[in-house]
Design brief:
The complex is a heterotrimer of chains A (232), B (289) and C (327). Chain A has a single domain, classed as P-loop containing nucleotide triphosphate hydrolases (Rossmann fold, 3-Layer(aba) Sandwich). Helix content of chain A is 31%, strand content 28%. Classes of the chains: A alpha/beta (232), B mainly alpha (289), C mainly alpha (327).
Chain lengths: 232, 289, 327
């Protein structure tokens, strides 16, 4: 479904990804783990078109989307839950969710269904989104992404800055997402959390893929080496 | 009693300024863009009404919707092909580009229509009035302008809060990069916003031209009035522009009552006082940067 | 100092020296044109310092021109102060008035700041209309009986030229001095990263205030001189946004905003176009305005930016370079 081939990408004066290749099959949940600064978020942003590629290509369902605008990728069925949640502060919770369906892609997701997997949003729908807790905002960000009815959803550091009990709540919703047939890529710093929910895992180290394999088969020592580098 | 009449006339005049201010306010709200050609575009629209009416042999009122559509189209094209290219962290290029365009428009009008005063004909409504008592009477046309301002702001409010495109406007205003993640083409939204801004300034130009005579150089004053209405009302507040327009209108009419020719000065001074003592405007929540 | 800026400095000095002797060898007609070019150059250099280097995009500089014109008029024609002495005095008046103006308009940002300065200029225009001794909108002349008593026409013409010449040199030196001083470093820091500069303890408002006052003073001096040259003061012309702001802004955008060489290149283009279009004032505005609007989209740094893209150099010694291990 998603094929990233030999992608190099980065920012003006700093390159974050070197020859990264990765593929995701329909229906899978794939985890990307790595330390702070390993290039995980840049990889998602490259898939989304928010970072220009220096080299390599990104294909989605057989279409080369390397040069496509971000909003057109959304229309094709890719959606990103951005790092830092990026809720629209002047919109209400309901509007924040609703704006996800701007492209009118047909699919199973509706506000009711999002509320059913995140019950905490139910009583907040008419409130302004600006003054909510981090967990509530994260639920909105995920729900908003789902309302575009994506075939592939990218989740960037969902657990960042949240209390463990809240993280658990959010991760409990993941099976409900894949049950709808939605493919997911989960970026995480927390290895255990990531392995628990995913079918396969990629580990990034200093902008390169340092390990890939099935989540159930990789050993703790393997992944620790891939995560921190051989020197440790 | 004449003061009450002045108050009424000032409030109604505020409606006209609110229509001028709507477009400025919307463009600033959605894309942080201040169009210094705003006033000159109103005058352009007034001349376009004159010309389309005479070419097509219809009345000025009939040619107004056509000109509004034309202006909206011009706004969309201008934003997509010119102003969008000046968007960046530094507002300098956009400000100066629109300043240049304003001067060009003004002088092209001068070259085409000369400096002779012109006026638009809105029909018999222009002179008919409602007499309240001996000293207070309300002109039908001023009332129509005011009602139009309210309808315009009301429909804009409904558009922004109730429609999918309106939500996209607000989301893009908040954060264009994240709006793109929702499948929104931010540059296109900017185009639509400018289309609305140009359309409303076209309406403003018509009401101005039917109210008083105009010449090519009349634009900058209208820009200043619209801007003052926005700042007095409070940046980012839609209904604030109406309040701002009314305060400005009343100040001008009162000024004129004090001494003929003081209307402009009184309006500007009230604006400067608001800037000094209530820099966020009367309804404003604070300037977002 | 780099080789490029050494050549630039020597060349510029030579041009100004040769220009200084112009009344001794040049034609009268050319001298009149040069006064116009030199005054526009001065206004452009100052506006560039304001908008290009300090982020203060004012379109209300005509306010200072008008104030200076009327203060020069009241000093020299009404109070028998020598008109050329009234030039620096008018500059001081403008600097003083610029302080309360700044307190108000500095509350606005970007485009709203621009319109705010315009409103203030309008207020000054309307206020002078109310003052009867200043003619209340009628044409006021500097007469040989009062302001120009003791000045022959030839002497007056040459003094105007040399004053314009000195103002242009002064504006150039002021820019170089400001940009090389601590103030210039602060401006550079603000331009690169306003928040970062604040973190370093740069008081942005104070820095901007100083520049604002310098520019107001210099613009005022130029405005006073322009009206000594024309020997008349009219409300509408003295406070004209078209003449004293639009043309100046166009010159700077075309030449290159935020570049020291920009105003010189821009004034060259202005000169050529004005000469080509002779008396057609309307078309002068259309051509220069369209050129400026196009430039701000295509090359926001103007002609200087286009040149810089092709061959990077700085004509004046204002960029400091870290020279490491020079042998």
């Amino acid at each position: 479904m998603l094929v990233v081939s030999e992608v190099s990408a980065g920012y003006e004066d700093f390159r974050a990804l070197f020859d990264v290749s990765l593929s995701v099959r329909e229906g899978e949940t794939v985890a990307i783990v790595g330390a702070n600064g390993a290039g995980k978020s840049t990889l998602l942003r490259a898939v989304m078109g928010q970072v220009r590629l220096h080299a390599g290509s990104v294909h989605f369902c057989g279409v080369d989307i390397s040069e496509m605008k971000t909003y057109d990728r959304v229309k094709l069925g890719i959606s990103l839950v951005p790092e830092g949640r990026k809720i629209f502060p002047s919109l209400t919770v309901r509007e924040n969710l609703f704006i996800g369906s701007f492209g009118k892609r047909p699919g199973p997701w509706s506000i009711e269904r999002v509320v059913s997997i995140f019950p905490m949003l139910d009583r907040l729908l008419n409130r302004s989104a600006a003054k909510l807790s981090g967990g509530e905002q994260q639920a909105i960000a995920i729900g908003r992404a789902l309302l575009s009815n994506p075939r592939l959803v990218l989740l960037d550091e969902v657990s960042l800055g949240l209390a463990p009990v809240v993280v658990k709540q959010l991760y409990n919703a993941l099976p409900a997402i894949s049950n709808q047939g939605t493919t997911a890529i989960v970026v995480e710093q927390d290895i255990h959390q990531a392995l628990a929910v995913s079918d396969r895992v990629y580990c990034l180290l200093e902008g390169k893929v340092s390990l890939s394999g099935e989540a159930s088969r990789v050993s703790t020592s393997e992944i620790t080496t891939a995560y921190f580098g051989a020197a440790v | 009693m004449s003061w009450i009449n002045a108050l009424v006339q000032g409030v109604l005049l505020g409606g006209l300024y609110a229509i001028f201010a709507t477009g400025l306010s919307l463009a600033f709200g959605v894309m942080r863009f201040v169009n210094l050609a705003h006033g000159d575009l109103a005058i352009l629209a007034a001349y376009l009404v004159l010309s389309t009416a005479s070419t097509m042999g219809v009345s000025h009122v009939v040619s107004l919707p056509l000109v509004v559509l034309l202006m909206a189209g011009l706004g969309y094209v201008g934003q997509r092909f010119v102003f969008n290219r000046t968007i960046g962290p530094d507002p300098l290029a956009g400000i100066l580009c629109s300043f240049g365009i304003g001067v060009v428009v003004q002088n092209l009008l001068l070259a085409r229509y000369t400096a002779t005063d012109r006026y638009l004909d809105a029909g018999s409504i222009e002179t008919s009035t409602i007499r309240i008592n001996d000293s207070v009477s309300i002109g039908h046309f001023s009332l129509l302008t005011f009602v139009c301002a309210i309808l315009l702001l009301g429909s804009l409010q409904i558009f922004l809060s109730r429609t999918s495109l309106g939500r996209a406007f607000r989301a893009t205003a908040d954060d264009p990069a994240t709006a793109q993640l929702m499948g929104i083409n931010d540059k296109r939204i900017y185009g639509f916003a400018m289309a609305i801004a140009f359309g409303t300034v076209g309406i403003a130009g018509f009401f101005l031209g039917a109210r008083e005579t105009f010449a090519p150089a009349a634009g900058p004053n209208q820009l200043l009035f619209g801007f003052e209405a926005v700042v007095i009302g409070g940046l980012g507040s839609l209904w604030g522009t109406l309040i701002g327009g009314i305060v400005l209108g009343v100040a001008q009419v009162f000024g004129n009552q004090l001494s003929v020719g003081w209307n402009l000065l009184a309006g500007h001074i009230v604006f400067l006082m608001v800037l000094a003592f209530r820099p966020n405007g009367l309804l404003g929540t604070g300037v977002r940067t | 100092m780099s080789r490029g800026s050494r050549i630039g400095t020597v060349g510029m000095t030579l041009i100004f020296v040769v220009l200084g002797f112009f009344p001794l060898y040049g034609s009268d007609r050319m001298q009149v044109t040069l006064v116009q070019v030199l005054t526009y150059l001065t206004l452009a250099i100052m506006w560039n310092l304001l908008a290009g280097y300090s982020g203060l995009v004012s379109v209300g500089q005509q306010g200072f021109i008008g104030i200076a014109a009327y203060s020069m008029f009241s000093m020299s024609e009404l109070n028998s102060i020598d008109p050329f002495v009234s030039v620096p005095l008018s500059a001081m008046v403008c600097a003083a008035i610029s302080i309360p103006v700044a307190l108000l308009v500095f509350r606005l940002r970007g485009g709203y700041f621009a319109i705010g300065t315009w409103v203030v200029a309008e207020v000054f225009r309307l206020l002078t209309l109310e003052i009867n001794v200043l003619g209340a909108g009628n044409v006021q002349s500097l007469t040989t009986k009062n302001a120009f008593s003791g000045y022959g026409l030839e002497v007056r013409k040459n003094l105007v030229f040399w004053s314009a010449w000195m103002l242009a040199i002064g504006a150039t030196l002021t820019t170089i001095f400001v940009l090389r001083s601590r103030l210039g470093l602060a401006l550079q820091a603000v331009r690169d990263d306003a928040d970062g500069a604040r973190g370093l303890g740069v008081d942005i408002t104070r820095v901007r205030m100083i520049i604002w006052m310098i520019v107001a003073a210099w613009t005022g001096a130029t405005g006073a001189l322009i009206h000594i040259n024309s020997a008349t003061v009219t409300n509408r012309d003295a406070f004209s946004v078209a003449s004293w702001t639009a043309l100046v802004v166009f010159i700077v955008i075309i030449g290159g905003v935020g570049s020291t060489i920009g105003p010189y290149l821009g004034v060259g283009v202005y000169w050529i176009i004005t000469e080509q279009l002779k008396q057609q004032n309307t078309w002068r505005f259309i051509v220069l305005g369209a050129l400026a609007a196009t430039m701000s989209v295509v090359s926001p740094k103007g002609i200087a930016g286009l040149i810089h893209r092709w061959k990077p150099f700085e004509i004046f010694p204002v960029t400091r370079r870290l020279e490491v291990g020079k042998e």
